[in-house]
TrEMBL record, chain A:
SUPFAM superfamilies: N-terminal nucleophile aminohydrolases (Ntn hydrolases) (SSF56235). GO terms for molecular function: threonine-type endopeptidase activity. This is proteasome endopeptidase complex. It is found in: Nucleus. Its EC number is 3.4.25.1. It comes from Elliptochloris bilobata. It catalyses: Cleavage of peptide bonds with very broad specificity. Coiled coil: none annotated. Pfam families: Proteasome (PF00227). InterPro entries: Ntn_hydrolases_N, Pept_T1A_subB, Proteasome_sua/b, Proteasome_suB-type. It is an enzyme of class 3 (hydrolase). The keyword Nucleus applies.
Automatic annotation (TrEMBL), chain B:
Coiled coil: none annotated. SUPFAM superfamilies: N-terminal nucleophile aminohydrolases (Ntn hydrolases). One of its GO terms (biological process) is ubiquitin-dependent protein catabolic process. Its main location: cytoplasm. This is Proteasome subunit alpha type-3. One of its GO terms (cellular component) is cytoplasm. PANTHER family: PROTEASOME SUBUNIT ALPHA/BETA (PTHR11599). Belongs to the peptidase T1A family. It comes from the Eukaryota. Pfam families: Proteasome (PF00227), Proteasome_A_N (PF10584). It is found in: Cytoplasm; Nucleus. The proteasome is a multicatalytic proteinase complex which is characterized by its ability to cleave peptides with Arg, Phe, Tyr, Leu, and Glu adjacent to the leaving group at neutral or slightly basic pH. The proteasome has an ATP-dependent proteolytic activity. Residues 8-30 form the Proteasome alpha-type subunits domain.
From TrEMBL, chain C:
Component of the proteasome, a multicatalytic proteinase complex which is characterized by its ability to cleave peptides with Arg, Phe, Tyr, Leu, and Glu adjacent to the leaving group at neutral or slightly basic pH. The proteasome has an ATP-dependent proteolytic activity. It is found in: Cytoplasm; Nucleus. This is Proteasome subunit beta. Component of the proteasome complex. It comes from the Eukaryota. Pfam families: Proteasome. PROSITE patterns: PROTEASOME_BETA_1 (PS00854), PROTEASOME_BETA_2 (PS51476). InterPro entries: Ntn_hydrolases_N (IPR029055), Proteasome_beta4 (IPR016295), Proteasome_bsu_CS (IPR016050), Proteasome_sua/b (IPR001353), Proteasome_suB-type (IPR023333). One of its GO terms (biological process) is proteolysis involved in protein catabolic process. Belongs to the peptidase T1B family. Keywords: Cytoplasm, Nucleus, Proteasome.
Length: 233, 248, 285
């Protein structure tokens, strides 16, 4: 048991991002584990880099938190020089440079996504070795193995915001249904020219998958209201 | 410059009592005595033109460059001390490369102009350095469209629709102000620049004209204007000049 | 020439094999003895030296293995110049993760580069070459790096990095036209380099080169050369699991460099014997 707890705190994870007509949707589960112990059941793996660019983190929690903090710092400094918003590509490139040039030290699989005036919504994958890939959608983390088929089948170019959001929620929920390292709630973010919208789907409101049972909802909820919440970022 | 500057013009690290830094003023003079350099922003790009006095009959044509590409999307034309100009051009190339490497995008015009101005300014801060005797016209085509910047020896940098530096700058600027820059394309622009350079030129002495542009016709890359087009612009400029002489 | 992928934490996704933890601990490694009755376990644990540290195994050596990889690159010379071919897959271990990664890149007006192996290292090499090309552009003297110069440069870069025990994990193919003469060369991750009339890296060395040896002529027409590459790619698709049926062909001719749109090849699965392979060989599967 002790050996279990000495393991690295890791985002055994499902993360994804998908571009739609005019923006992007990012999604993630909320589980952080230390071996078999759930260290945090309501983690936020969607981290802001700038106002309109976010990163989905997978891998070592410590590595990715610090990496994101560095990218935030560099981007904020750079925005001063630019006198305006940085592009999603610049954010992704900075993250990629850090991952690539420290690949011997880092365990970080990232997805950088956001909106800028030049490219609209864009999604970049930055997997382990520090490759930089512009993609229409991508998935990552341990849970992603279970939903490649689902995503390849259900992602369509030029989806509406609602369709794309539904696609992301469904994909993440299916990954959580089969991956023990993914779980908890589903957090999503929609970014487009109008701004950033966060959504939160509590665990007990996720549609039960095959072989599962829909849990009864508690009679009263201590904090906040029931139902999928929509919040400001 | 005798009299008032006396004693206060030996170093950039000393102001004169009336608030001038004479060394940068003198550096500006090196620019003011140079061949004219003109830049205009047309509706589809930027045109730069340089008037280069031919210093010797034995000079190999085209060997005294004054307009340089610093990246695919940016170029600089320098007036004043040509050797100083090359340092500034080298710095611009380095800035463009390092920006691209770090941020993944081509360096925006404003950032490049800011960084070049800071670089030039550095040389007017310390007693042991001499300011650059060069003004640089920077032409860029980035996501925000075509832009023209001027960086002076003092480190001041401004963005222009059109401007000129060097000997014929006053007359050239008057001519530029007459142009309807929003209405002309770079293909017309090179003719206008050629005309301006010929009209402000001291007629007796021979000169070589260097034209460069960045526009749709050049594939949004900073390039020398193709030889045929440049020659045509020169012919047309000479003809126009002869016409106006006839009228006089 | 291609290394065996891959080892990293399964937390990062599928396609992995090998040690799953960055710091191997007694609980996950069979070669490290767990604390036992023979060892003091009460009170003295803090003074025990971690066996993995003692064995010098505590290092994390991520650069020993590639992560996102491309497979073979093929190249042949022909009458008008050089043709390179590759598929567009970026593998993640055995996962076919990125299906539209272009592994053939224009270097300048007379040179193309094809790459297999770690694709982040390939992107790094691309930035090096882009900087050189921009330098040439700015010099504006009409000169560009020749294919042979690009090839020599890359061989030095890769050899230099392997001497730092930090190799760029790639097999590269450089193709181009130099004074009207086709140039074709390859550079491996430890710096080995050679030129030839036809070249294949990785699995292609086994699958495609026999075809090249049989059918390649330096005076092939464009149609013949394309057909030969198609046949070689098809074999790679049949017999290399890291290959997908989505290919590109790059061409260098006197007209310049062109990289084709991605295309799929017709494949043949309709042989009668395929339907019931055991019919004519009783007792087999």
């Amino acid at each position: 048991m002790e050996a279990e707890l000495n393991q690295a705190v890791s985002l055994g994870t499902t993360i994804m991002a998908a571009a739609y007509d005019g923006g992007v949707v990012l999604g993630a589960d909320s589980r952080t584990s230390t071996g078999n112990y759930v260290a945090n059941r309501v983690t936020d793996k969607l981290t802001p880099l700038t106002d309109k660019v976010y990163v989905c983190r997978s891998g070592s929690a410590a590595d990715t938190q610090n990496l994101a903090a560095y990218v935030q710092l560099y981007l904020h400094q750079h925005q001063m020089e630019l006198g305006g918003d940085v592009s999603v590509r610049t954010a992704a490139r900075l993250a990629q440079q850090i991952v690539y040039s420290n690949k011997a030290m880092l365990q970080a699989g990232l997805i950088v996504a956001g909106w800028d005036a030049r490219d609209n919504g864009s999604v970049y994958g930055v997997p382990l070795g520090g490759t930089l890939l512009k993609v229409p959608f991508t998935i990552g983390g341990s849970g992603s193995a279970y939903i490649y088929g689902f995503c390849d089948k259900n992602w369509k170019p030029g989806m509406s915001e609602a369709d794309c959001h539904a696609f992301v929620v469904k994909a993440v929920s299916h990954a959580m249904a089969r991956d023990g390292s993914s779980g908890g709630c589903i957090r999503t973010i929609v970014i487009n020219k109008d701004g950033v919208k966060r959504h939160f789907l509590p665990n007990n409101e996720i549609l039960a998958a095959y072989g599962e049972l829909q849990p009864p909802l508690p009679a009263s909820i201590a904090v906040g209201g029931g139902g999928a919440a929509e919040m400001s970022p | 410059m005798s009299g008032i500057g006396t004693g206060y013009d030996l170093s950039t690290s000393t102001f004169s009592p009336d608030g001038r830094v004479f060394q940068t003023d003198y550096a500006q003079k090196a620019v003011d005595n140079s061949g004219t350099v003109v830049g205009i922003v047309c509706n589809d790009g930027v045109v730069l033109g340089v008037e280069k006095p031919i210093v010797s009959k034995m000079l190999v044509e085209g060997s005294n460059r004054r307009a340089y590409a610093v990246d695919r999307h940016a170029g600089v034309a320098v007036a004043g001390v040509a050797a100083d100009g090359r340092q500034i051009v080298n710095r611009a190339v380095q800035e463009a490369v390092s920006y691209k490497n770090l941020y993944g995008d081509a360096i925006p015009g404003r950032v490049l102009a800011d960084r070049l101005a800071s670089y030039v300014h550095l040389f007017s801060l310390y007693w042991y350095s001499r300011p650059y005797g060069t003004a640089s016209l920077l032409a860029v085509y980035d996501d925000d469209g075509p832009q023209l910047y001027l960086i002076e020896p003092s480190g001041a940098g401004h963005r222009f629709f059109g401007t000129a530096v060097g000997k014929g700058r006053q007359a050239a600027k008057t001519e530029i102000e007459r142009l309807k820059l929003h209405e002309i394309s770079c293909e017309q622009g090179i003719n206008e620049v050629a005309k301006i350079l010929h009209s402000v030129h001291d007629e007796e002495k021979p000169f070589e004209m260097e034209l460069a542009w960045i526009c749709e016709a050049s594939g949004r890359e900073f390039k020398r204007v193709p030889a045929e087009l440049a020659a045509a612009a020169e012919r047309q400029a000479k003809a126009a000049l002869a016409d106006s002489d006839m009228e006089d | 020439m291609l290394p065996v992928p891959t080892s990293h934490s399964p937390a990062l996704g599928p396609g992995c094999a090998g040690p799953s933890l960055a710091y191997a601990s007694a609980s996950t490694r069979s070669d490290i003895a767990p604390p036992s009755a023979q060892q003091p376990c009460c009170g003295s644990e803090p003074f025990m030296v971690d066996p993995s540290a003692a064995a010098g195994l505590g290092l994390r050596r991520h650069t020993d293995t590639p992560y996102v990889t491309g497979t073979s690159v093929l190249g042949i010379t022909y009458k008008d110049g050089v043709m390179l071919a590759a598929d567009t897959l970026g593998s993640y271990g055995s996962t076919k993760r990125y299906k539209s990664f272009e592994r053939l890149a224009k270097v300048n007006d007379a040179t193309v580069l094809g790459a297999g192996g770690e694709l982040s290292d390939f992107q790094y090499i691309q930035t090096l070459l882009d900087e050189l090309a921009t330098e040439d552009y700015c010099a504006d003297d009409g000169m560009q790096l020749t294919p042979r110069e690009v090839y020599a440069y890359l061989s030095r870069v890769l050899y230099n990095r392997r001497n730092k025990f930090d190799p760029l994990w790639n097999s590269l193919v450089v193709g181009g036209l130099e004074g009207g003469v086709p140039f074709l060369g390859t550079v491996g991750m430890i710096g080995v380099h050679y030129t030839d009339k036809h070249i294949a890296t990785g699995f292609g060395q086994m699958l495609a080169r026999p075809l090249f040896r049989e059918r390649h002529r330096p005076d092939m027409s464009e149609e013949e050369a394309t057909e030969l590459l198609h046949d070689a790619l098809r074999v790679c698709y049949y017999r290399d699991k890291q290959t997908t049926n989505k290919f590109q062909i790059a061409k260098v001719t006197a007209e310049g460099v062109s990289v084709s749109e991605a295309f799929a090849l017709e494949t043949q699965w309709g042989y009668q014997a395929f339907v019931n392979p055991a019919a004519n060989a009783l007792g087999t599967w």
